[in-house]
From TrEMBL:
Highest taxon above the source species: Bacteria
A matching Pfam family: DUF3105
Positions of the UniProt region annotated as Disordered: 1-27, 56-78
TM spans (from-to): 29-52
Record keyword Manganese present: no
Name by which UniProt lists this protein: DUF3105 domain-containing protein
Keywords, ordered alphabetically: Membrane, Transmembrane, Transmembrane helix
InterPro entries: DUF3105
Species whose genome carries this gene: Streptomyces fradiae ATCC 10745 = DSM 40063
UniProt feature, compositional bias: Basic and acidic residues: 7-26, 58-78
């Protein structure tokens, strides 16, 4: 009887030992899971903070660029630029025009990329609505044109088209403002867009950039 009780006690002791070992393994697993989870969360928080900080710095750079003067920019007195609606062709004194009398219909300018020249009298109306018009001629490198097309396509209140008669290979135009740039990665491209897309020069801020002509005559 004593031997039986001893064997039972040994079994209970082994079972208890196994149970404690299992509990220890579970505790270690929980600690490891919590540690990994905390590390992942900390990493995500840190990455999120990094992204937010980068975005904040980028906004600050854009705001600073929008306040700074654009190098070699040309300006026209807005008071001297007509704003009447006309039905006839207008002989603008500059290519591309920076403002003046224009047709009552504007060119769609919500990131519109036109492969063919657009009517100036309609493009000028888009400028009046706060659009920036990116233009190029045959001297512009093909890769620069493609880069600018992608930039314009993702930027509201912009449009792009060829203007063969312009003097510069790549030019950016807003109402009363114009600059010729050296290349698609010229920092003045982003600066001009940040400064003049719906900028303070806009005669009709908030006016539509959709619902006008779309390059097909409609």
């Amino acid at each position: 009887m004593s031997a039986h009780r001893s064997a039972s006690a040994d079994r209970r002791a082994r079972v208890e030992q196994m149970r404690k070992a299992e509990q220890a393994r579970e505790r270690r697993a929980r600690v490891l899971t919590l540690t990994v989870s905390a590390a992942v969360v900390a990493g995500l928080v840190g990455f999120g903070a990094y992204v937010l900080n980068e975005e904040s710095e980028e906004r600050q750079r854009e705001e600073a660029a929008a306040k700074a003067p654009v190098r070699d920019e040309k300006s026209w007195d807005a008071k001297e630029l007509g704003r009447d609606h006309v039905t006839q062709t207008v002989a603008y004194p500059m290519k591309p025009p920076v403002g003046g009398d224009h047709h009552q219909a504007w060119m769609d300018c919500d990131g519109a990329v036109y492969k063919e020249p657009v009517p100036e009298v309609n493009a000028v109306h888009s400028l009046e609505h706060g659009a920036v018009w990116v233009t190029y001629n045959a001297k512009a490198p093909k890769d620069a044109v493609e880069t600018l097309e992608k930039k314009v396509a993702r930027t509201p209140y912009t449009m792009m088209s060829p203007v063969g008669e312009q003097t510069g290979a790549i030019m950016l135009t807003a109402w009363g403002k114009q600059v010729t740039v050296d290349s698609a990665d010229d920092p003045r491209v982003n600066q001009f867009l940040a400064k003049y897309v719906q900028g303070p020069q806009t005669p009709e801020p908030g006016a539509a950039c959709t619902g006008g002509l779309n390059g097909t005559g409609k």
